[in-house]
Amino acid sequence: MIVMHDVIVVGTGFGGLTSAALLAKRGMRVLTLEAANELGGSAGKFDRQGFRFAAGATVGMGFEKDGLLTELFHELEMNPPSMQQLETIMNVYLPDRHVMYFAQKERWFEEAGRVFEKSERIQAFFHEVFSVAEKLYRFVKQKIIFPPVTIREWKNFLQAIDVSILSLAPYLHQSVYDRLRKYELHNDKAFMTFLNGQLMDSVQTTAEYSPSLLGYMALSVFHRGAFYVHGGLASVIEALSVSFQQNGGELKMRSKVISLKKSGNHWRVETKRGDMYEANQLIVNAPIHNIFELLADQERKALPIKQEKEEQQTSWGAFTLYVGAKEGFLDEKSFFTPFHQFIGTYDRPLSEGNQFLFSVSSPDDDTFAPDGKRAITISTHTEVKQWWNKETYEGLKDRYVNDILYLIEKRFNGFSAHTEVLLPGTPVTFQRFTQRKHGLVGGYVPTSKYSLFKAYSPNARIEGLWFCGDTVFPGAGSLGSSLSGWTVANELIQTYK
């Protein structure tokens, strides 16, 4: 006998567990299925040789006083994991200078004046960023389905638009680069490289291709609050899972979904083990890349998103290094700074090891490493196709390891000598452990100033089917994924009132 659920959630990333926890809190019968041994997907963790490693190198965000994740945990009536707010978001090592990227705006402006020319123009640009982002933030927090699909979604969307949002209309046809031209910053090589490094880590592209509104939101988030979360983002994922199960939700690990099919008015979900489940509503927290191989023929044909067109979308993979090391390689200034960004040269794109984020565990965080040692996650953007050539795979991996270690050694002399564990990860690794097709991560890469208008809606436009995660609006990152899951949960809560 197949047990009927109100909702089945496929995947335990930020989007899936946000929606599952909120729906269970409202008393709905929710089943969540996860293919892997660990929760969280790209936001998860794994243990090796006495160290715990975060799957991705990511700064904690959204835990400020009015932040999205603060409000989520308030809604769930539980405390967030232990964390500390950062004065320095990260140290950024450009080829010829060191930038301390401060969270507090006045300190950041002072630092920008120290390391860059045109400091007054940089301040004016960031004041515009903060002003625009504040208006957007109030709109986004209303959790409106975008792009709207149904009459109700259009009504909600139009009701959410006020005068402050209408004032942002001119930005809709401009890129971040267009705005930088206004401030005559577009020709400042060092500042542009710094800014593009931040945009690459947040919106997966550079100023030239980032829609101004998307880029402004990303550039403002760190200054709202940057955090080191003890145990990494996996601690947030674990807390959401605890809330979900305490409120009656059912979680099944190692349950890889292989088929999603309509059965009358319900959805039938089949796993690789041969288990069958049914629900009135289905939330898929997997990338759109994966959805076509999961949907049965009839449902795949009915889906407005067509595979041929979706496959033309651009997405990055990640090359990662997981390092367990004795902490002696850190200098006094770096000892308590958990996040560092390295950029090797101004003359190459900010990917393929020329730019990477270096996330090191805190000395007082024993969830990651024993006393006197640190767990480090290093991540760089990479084009995925090159990693699926078996003949060149090992050589390519060795080259990336050597290139990254070379840049680290220039900053942290003796780093390699302090290393005890060194584990490379490639898109092949990510596909194996997170089930993401071809190892694509981070959502879609904006390719023009109009990319926002091409975003996929969380509403799949098939009755009872919803998407959340980094490939639907509002996009990449833990905050964007969580917000998509919350938006879907709100829609279902309204449906079941």
List keywords for this structure.
single chain; 497 residues; alpha/beta; FAD/NAD(P)-binding domain; seven-stranded mixed β-sheet; 16 helices; 36% helix; 22% strand; globular
Tell me what the structure shows.
This protein has 16 helices and 19 strands. It has 497 residues and is α/β, with parallel strands linked by helices. It has three domains: 4-45 and 61-74 and 231-312 and 446-495, FAD/NAD(P)-binding domain (3-Layer(bba) Sandwich), CATH 3.50.50.60; 103-224, no CATH class; 316-439. The strands form four sheets. Strands 1, 2, 10, 11, 12, 13 and 19 form a seven-stranded mixed beta sheet that branches. A seven-stranded mixed beta sheet has the order 8-7-15-16-17-14-18, sandwiched between helices. Helix 7 crosses helix 9 and helix 8 (189-203) packs across helix 9. 49% of the residues are buried.
